[in-house]
C-alpha cells in the first residue's frame, strides 16, 4: 500500500475576479522511501497541491472542493483537526523555499528546534535539547553546541536551510515535503543541501516529495517525476523514462527550452505564448493554445492521464491516439 | 579619491582606440562600516569589488558569474556609476567616468543602460508603457516630442511587444512581457552597452528562453555589448562570448565561455561547474560532484592570501600567503591560482 494516496484533489480559490482553479483534479501516490519530483512552471499548482495535503491552504479564499489524501489510513483532507495535528509535523513534515522567512526571527534556534518534540512527544526539555543538538550536528552545522542558542539572523542562507531541515526531520517523519528548498540558494550551497536531503533520506528511510521548477535538480534526486501544467498532471514517469523518452508535448517543449540541453549559439527553443488564465474554465487541453501539434479535438476534449507503460502515464489526446 | 588636475579628455587621449568599449582598470568599490551613534567611527570596510581589471569589446557578450555576495551586482553598479568608485578607473568609449562632471555624466549615461532582475520592481506601476518608454527620450532630448510616439512604437516592436499595448500598465503584463518592457526602456537611448543584472532569474524556464533569445538577437543586430550577470552557469554559457568568474570581489577566472565552463581551470570554477545539476539522470548519477564545504567568507574579513583557500580542496600553505594575481593561461584565458600548473 502506498504511503500517501491523493485522489481527485481539487483546490480552488474563490477570488473577486472569479474562481481560480489552482489544482483541478489530480491523483497520485507516493510509496514508502520513494522520492517523487513535482515539476512545473509558476502557477501550475505544484505548491498548492502540497499545501492542500498539509492543510496550509488559506481558507477563504481557498477551498478544497473534492478529493482525498489517504496517509496511513487517515484522510488528511477530511479528518478532525486533532487527528491532523497528530500527523502534521510528526509523520509528515515540510520545508519551504525561503529559509529567511520561514524561521521565527524572535526565537532562538534551540526553541524552534525542540518545539515539534515538545508538542508531539512526551519528552523533557533537557532531552529534547539533546536531540536537537544531535540533529543539528547531523545536518552538518559545525560547532552546534554553541550555535544552537543563536538567532536565525546569525546564520547564513544555507545554514538556515539546514536548520529548517533539522527542524522538519527531528520527529523522524515518514514523508518530507520539500517546496523548492534550494531555489533561493547559490548553486554550491544547493549542491550541499541536495546531498544532505539524500543522506537524511537514506538514514531515516523516509519518502520525499520534491517540488521544483528545475529539471536538473530532479534528474539527480528523484525516482519518479510528475509534470504539472495549469493545475493538472500532464505526465508522470520514472525519472529515466521522463528524461529520455518524454511523450507529452509540454514535457518535451519544457526539456527543449533548457539552455544546457541546446547547442551554444543556436536560437533557444521557446514555448510560444503564456500559461492560461486559470480563472476561466478551460474547455479542452490547457496546453493546446501553445502546443505545436494542436488539432481541433485538443481544443474541445479534456484529456485524462492514460498509461503508456506500467510506470508511465501521460495526458495528450494525440499521443494516446498514436498520432505522435 | 584623488582626481588628476587635467581634464578627462586629455587624460584619456593616449588610450587605444581599438574596439574596446568599456575598460575597467583595477576598479575597487569599498564600503565603509561605521559604528557609533553621534560620532561615527570607521570599524571596517567591505571590499565589495577589489581590483577588477576587465575589457569589454564592441558587440561582445560578457557573462559575469559568482555566488551571491561576490560583488557582481556592485561591479555593475560601479560601472554605471550608481555607487562611487573608491579606486581605479572605469573608461567607457575612451572617457574616464570618474572624471566626468554631472552634465558630462548625463551624456555618458546615454551610452550605457541597465536591465534589472525583477521586472515587477523595476517598472513604475503608475506609469503606462508609453510613459515609461517616453521618459528617457524626453529627458535626453533624443528626438522632437512629436516623434516620441512613433519611436516608442518602434521600441515595442523591437522587443516583440505589440504597440497597441502602449497605454497599458505594468500589472497588465506577465513577467516575461515586463522584462521586455524593461529591455525596451534600456534600448530607448540607443546605448553602446547594456548591463543586465540577473535578467532571467525571476522568470520560468520557457519564458527565460524567450528573453535570452531576444537579448542575443538584439546584441547581434545592433552590435551592442552586453554584460550579462547571472548565477546560472548554463544560461551564461549559452549567451556569452566570454565569461568572468568572480569570488569575493575579485575576478578569478576569465576566458571564452565554452572553455571556461567545459574546461574550468580554477578550483572554484571547477566546483561551481560541478554543482550545476544537469537535466540528464544517467550523467547526473554517475558523476563525481565537488561539494564545497561551508559558505563564501565575509568580504569584511576576507581570508589572507587567496580568498578561496578555506574552501579549496587543493589549498596549501603558500595559498595563505599572497593574493594570487590573474595571470594568462594560454592566449585567451586568465586564471588567478598559484597552484595552476600543479593541479
Question: Describe it for me?
Answer:
The complex is a heterodimer of chains A (about 325) and B (about 350). Chain A has about 325 residues and is an alpha/beta fold. Chain A has a domain at about 245-325. Helix content of chain A is about 35%, strand content about 25%. Chain A has helices at about 45-55, 80-85, 110-120, 125-140, 145, 155-170, 185-205, 215-220, 240-245, 250-255, 295-300, 315-320, and strands at about 5-15, 20-30, 35-40, 60-70, 75, 90-95, 175-180, 205-210, 225-230, 230-240, 305-310, 310-315. In chain A, the strands form two sheets. In chain A, strands 6-7-8-3-9-10-12-11 form an eight-stranded mixed sheet, sandwiched between helices. In chain A, strands 2-1-4-5 form a four-stranded antiparallel sheet. Chain A is globular. Chain B has a domain at about 20-110 and about 190-335: P-loop containing nucleotide triphosphate hydrolases (Rossmann fold, 3-Layer(aba) Sandwich), CATH 3.40.50.300. In chain B, α4 (about 130-140) packs across α5 and α6 (about 175-185) packs parallel to α7 (about 205-220). Chain B has about 350 residues and is α/β, with parallel strands linked by helices. The chains are: A alpha/beta (about 325), B alpha/beta (about 350). The interface between A and B is large, with 43 and 42 residues.
**Terminal residue distance of chain A:** 34 Å
CATH superfamily of the domain at 20-111 and 189-335 in chain B: P-loop containing nucleotide triphosphate hydrolases
Percent of residues of chain A in helical segments? 25-40%
Number of strands of chain B: 12
Structural shape of chain B: globular
Q: Could you tell me the mean pLDDT of chain A?
A: 88
Q: Could you state the oligomeric state of the chains shown?
A: heterodimer
Give the low-confidence spans of chain A.
Answer: none
CATH architecture of the domain at 20-111 and 189-335 in chain B: 3-Layer(aba) Sandwich
Structural class of chain A: alpha/beta
**C-alpha Rg of chain B, in Å?**
21 Å
Radius of gyration of chain A: 21 Å
The total count of strands of chain A amounts to: 12
Q: Assess the beta-strand content of chain A as a share of residues.
A: 15-25%
Low-pLDDT runs of 5+ residues of chain B are 1-17
The fold-level CATH name of the domain at 20-111 and 189-335 in chain B is: Rossmann fold
Amino acid at each position: 500500500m502506498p504511503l500517501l494516496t491523493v485522489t481527485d484533489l481539487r483546490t480552488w480559490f474563490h477570488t473577486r475576479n472569479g474562481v481560480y482553479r489552482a489544482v483541478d483534479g489530480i491523483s497520485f501516490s507516493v510509496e514508502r522511501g520513494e522520492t517523487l519530483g513535482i515539476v512545473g512552471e509558476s502557477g501550475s499548482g505544484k505548491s498548492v497541491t502540497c499545501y492542500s495535503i498539509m492543510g496550509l491552504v488559506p481558507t477563504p479564499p481557498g477551498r478544497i472542493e473534492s478529493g482525498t489524501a489517504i496517509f496511513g489510513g487517515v484522510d488528511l483532507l477530511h479528518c478532525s483537526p486533532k487527528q491532523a495535528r497528530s500527523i502534521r509535523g510528526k509523520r509528515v513534515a515540510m520545508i519551504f523555499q525561503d529559509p529567511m522567512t520561514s524561521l521565527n526571527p524572535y526565537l532562538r534556534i534551540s526553541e524552534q528546534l525542540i518545539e515539534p518534540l515538545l508538542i508531539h512527544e512526551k519528552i523533557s526539555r533537557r532531552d529534547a535539547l539533546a536531540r536537537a543538538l544531535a540533529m543539528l550536528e547531523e545536518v552538518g552545522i559545525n560547532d552546534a553546541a554553541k550555535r544552537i542558542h543563536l538567532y536565525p539572523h546569525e546564520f547564513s542562507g544555507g545554514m538556515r536551510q539546514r536548520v529548517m531541515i533539522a527542524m522538519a526531520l527531528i520527529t523522524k517523519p515518514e514523508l518530507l515535503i520539500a517546496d523548492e528548498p534550494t531555489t533561493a540558494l547559490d548553486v554550491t550551497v544547493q549542491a550541499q543541501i541536495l546531498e544532505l536531503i539524500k543522506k537524511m533520506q537514506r538514514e531515516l528511510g523516509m519518502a520525499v516529495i520534491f517540488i521544483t521548477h528545475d529539471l536538473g535538480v530532479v534528474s539527480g534526486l528523484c525516482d519518479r517525476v510528475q509534470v504539472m501544467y495549469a493545475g493538472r498532471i500532464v505526465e508522470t514517469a520514472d525519472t529515466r523514462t521522463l528524461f529520455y523518452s518524454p511523450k507529452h508535448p509540454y514535457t518535451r517543449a519544457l526539456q527543449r527550452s533548457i539552455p544546457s540541453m541546446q547547442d551554444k549559439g543556436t536560437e533557444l527553443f521557446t514555448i510560444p505564448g503564456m500559461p492560461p488564465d486559470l480563472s476561466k474554465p478551460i474547455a479542452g487541453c490547457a496546453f493546446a493554445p501553445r502546443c505545436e501539434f494542436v488539432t481541433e479535438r485538443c481544443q474541445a476534449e479534456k484529456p485524462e492521464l492514460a498509461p503508456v507503460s506500467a510506470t508511465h502515464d501521460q495526458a495528450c489526446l494525440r499521443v494516446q491516439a498514436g498520432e505522435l | 579619491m584623488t582626481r588628476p588636475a587635467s581634464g578627462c579628455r586629455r587624460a584619456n587621449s593616449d588610450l587605444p582606440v581599438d574596439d574596446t568599449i568599456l575598460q575597467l582598470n583595477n576598479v575597487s568599490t569599498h564600503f565603509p562600516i561605521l559604528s557609533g551613534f553621534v560620532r561615527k567611527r570607521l570599524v571596517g570596510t567591505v571590499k565589495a569589488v577589489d581590483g577588477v581589471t576587465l575589457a569589454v569589446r564592441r558587440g561582445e557578450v560578457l557573462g559575469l558569474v559568482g555566488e551571491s555576495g561576490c560583488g557582481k551586482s556592485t561591479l555593475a553598479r560601479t560601472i554605471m556609476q550608481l555607487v562611487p568608485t573608491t579606486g581605479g578607473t572605469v573608461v567607457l568609449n575612451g572617457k574616464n567616468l570618474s572624471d566626468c562632471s554631472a552634465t558630462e555624466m548625463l551624456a555618458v549615461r546615454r551610452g550605457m543602460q541597465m536591465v534589472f532582475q525583477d521586472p515587477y520592481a523595476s517598472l513604475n506601476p503608475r506609469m503606462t508603457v508609453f510613459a515609461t518608454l517616453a521618459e528617457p527620450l524626453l529627458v535626453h532630448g533624443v528626438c522632437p516630442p512629436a516623434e516620441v510616439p512613433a519611436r516608442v512604437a518602434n521600441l515595442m516592436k523591437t522587443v516583440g511587444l505589440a504597440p497597441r499595448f502602449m497605454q497599458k500598465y505594468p500589472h497588465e503584463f506577465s513577467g516575461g512581457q515586463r522584462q521586455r518592457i524593461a529591455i525596451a526602456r534600456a534600448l530607448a537611448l540607443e546605448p553602446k552597452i547594456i548591463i543586465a543584472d540577473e535578467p532571467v532569474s525571476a522568470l520560468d524556464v520557457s519564458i527565460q528562453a524567450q528573453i535570452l533569445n531576444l537579448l542575443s538577437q538584439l546584441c547581434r543586430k545592433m552590435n551592442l555589448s552586453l554584460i550579462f550577470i547571472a548565477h546560472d552557469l548554463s544560461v551564461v554559457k549559452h549567451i556569452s562570448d566570454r565569461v568572468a568568474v568572480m569570488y569575493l570581489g575579485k575576478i578569478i577566472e576569465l576566458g571564452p565561455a565554452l572553455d571556461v565552463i567545459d574546461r574550468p581551470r580554477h578550483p572554484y570554477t571547477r566546483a561551481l561547474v560541478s554543482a550545476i545539476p544537469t537535466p540528464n539522470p544517467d550523467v547526473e548519477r554517475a558523476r563525481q560532484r565537488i561539494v564545497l564545504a561551508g559558505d563564501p567568507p565575509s568580504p569584511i574579513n576576507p581570508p589572507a592570501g587567496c580568498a578561496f583557500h578555506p574552501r579549496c580542496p587543493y589549498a596549501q600553505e603558500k595559498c595563505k600567503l599572497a593574493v594570487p594575481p590573474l595571470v594568462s593561461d594560454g592566449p585567451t584565458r586568465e586564471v588567478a591560482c598559484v597552484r595552476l600548473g600543479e593541479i
